[in-house]
Design goal:
By secondary structure, this protein is mainly alpha-helical. Helices cover 89% and strands 0% of the residues. It starts with a helix and ends with a helix.
Length: 145
């Protein structure tokens, strides 16, 4: 038995046990570090999942709300565009009607100016006041025809 005892107490055995202990200590250190990093990453994943999937403030909820808002805005813009097209058509028709009225009024204005010029240039004839009034009256009636 002294042979085994000599082996267990020999310097080679001590070096081997010391090296094994160092390897085990290093492995335990790396295992502990990996567990701490795993906990940290798990916490980050949980936080990110919350930021993504929270029913009221998560990115998925925000995206759904934004999509709904875009659809509502699109419908509102389409409705407004249709109303504007209708209003533009009505305004165009009203503008055409008003332009036609302006044209008639301008034509009447020119005719009335010509009539008034004709009346102003008319030589009044007649010896008596009654004859002169009758002459002016006839000239006025002719311009109104």
């Amino acid at each position: 038995m002294s042979g085994i005892l000599d082996i267990l107490t020999g310097w080679k055995w001590k070096i081997a046990v010391g090296a094994g202990g160092l390897v085990l200590a290093a492995a335990a250190f790396f295992l502990l570090q990996a567990q701490l990093e795993n906990r940290h990453l798990t916490k980050q994943v949980t936080q990110l999942e919350g930021r993504i999937n929270d029913r009221t403030t998560g990115y998925v909820a925000q995206l759904a709300q934004a999509t709904t808002n875009v659809k509502q805005l699109s419908v509102a813009l389409d409705t407004q565009n249709e109303k504007l097209k209708t209003q533009a058509a009505q305004s165009g028709a009203e503008l055409a009607r008003l332009n036609a009225q302006i044209s008639v009024i301008q034509h009447d204005n020119l005719r009335l100016k010509a009539n008034s010029a004709s009346l102003m240039n008319h030589d009044i004839k007649g010896d008596t006041l009654e004859q002169r009034v009758g002459d002016v009256d006839r000239a006025l009636l002719e311009t109104l025809k």
